[in-house]
Amino acid sequence: MTKAFISGCAGPVLSNEETAFFKKQDPWGLILFARNIETPEQVRELTSAFRSAVGRDNAPVLIDQEGGRVQRLKAPHWRKYPAGKLYGDLYLQDRERGLRAAWLGARLIASDLAKVGISVDCLPCLDVRFPETVDAIGDRAFSDDPEVVAEIGQAMVDGALAGGILPIVKHIPGHGRAVVDSHLELPRVEVSKTSLESFDFRPFKALSKVSLGMTAHIVYADIDGDAPGTQSGKVIRDIIRGEIGFDGCLLSDDISMKALGGEVGERSRRIIGAGCDIVLHCNGDMVEMTAVADAVPELAGRAKQRCETALREQIAPEADFDEDTAWQEFIELTGWQGA
Question: CA-based Rg of the chain, rounded to a whole angstrom?
């Protein structure tokens, strides 16, 4: 039976130990990082090997391929894309131009991913940018205007889906006010719930029908001062599921990040207990992978239904999409030189 976690792996080829682990534990999906990427042929073989191990042809394979600093597939084998802020800047000059560029960017990324067997992209980043926003988000954020963030985010969701790739909205309910990097320590946001409702939550509410979402490892003190959102029943039940209205499959952000305390098994149990559907563990460390697998339940009930609903939204890309023409249009719209 499939278990409620997504795992990483250590390198560009599955080891015998990893293959045996995936066969036994059957994680819902696999996530890839730069350490797993060499060539298109190698990535295709890796994604195929994972699906063969778990025995599911539609098992999700995820990647963070936003553009800018967050791009795992890189030159010389793949195109380079801009950070999200470029789309927001274009939008301010010409709304339709900005939205078309965002759609094209996501659609072209989707083509890159689909060719190598990757089926899920961890974009768009719907975090609203503030003057104090930590650099870990920085130019990944489209704009400081929640409405602009929502519109560009929807364009990227549509572009990804058109290319046969499932998008993940992140970092719900909002990472923009963090002033420290959650990869390194736990951010704490002290602003009022009213302020969060006025800005941070709005893009997520606008895109609440997207079928996959990822949490933020942030303490929202006015909602739950004791636990980060990823492990907070109040944040997940009252805000994400309640106020925002997101009823899709909810993934944790990476539990390898230092924002969360305790050993990974305990982290995983707290995440599932708070209401997340899937635990995301990325670093490929077999000891930790085993602890996560032992801590999470089999997918069942509403969590299983949400996962199945998400996978049903994946469609075959249109046959007449011309990548070369689309890339040329993208360059003309954005002035992007791939640098």
Answer: 19
Helix 264-274 and helix 286-295, axial crossing angle in degrees, nearest 10? 40
HSE toward the beta carbon, residue 12, CA cutoff 13 A: 12
- Selecting among 253, 254, 277, 281, the annotated active-site residue is 253
Of 77, 144, 158, 183, the catalytic one is: 183
Which domains does the chain show, CATH number per domain? 3-318 (3.20.20.300)
First to last CA, the chain: 45
Buried b (16+ CB within 10 A) or exposed e, 3-15: bbbbbbbbeeebe
- pTM of the complete model: 0.97
Residue 253 known to be catalytic: yes
The answer to whether 77 is a known catalytic residue is: no
pLDDT in tens, 11-36: 999 999 999 999 999 999 999 999 99
Please say whether the beta carbons of 140 and 127 come within 8 A: yes
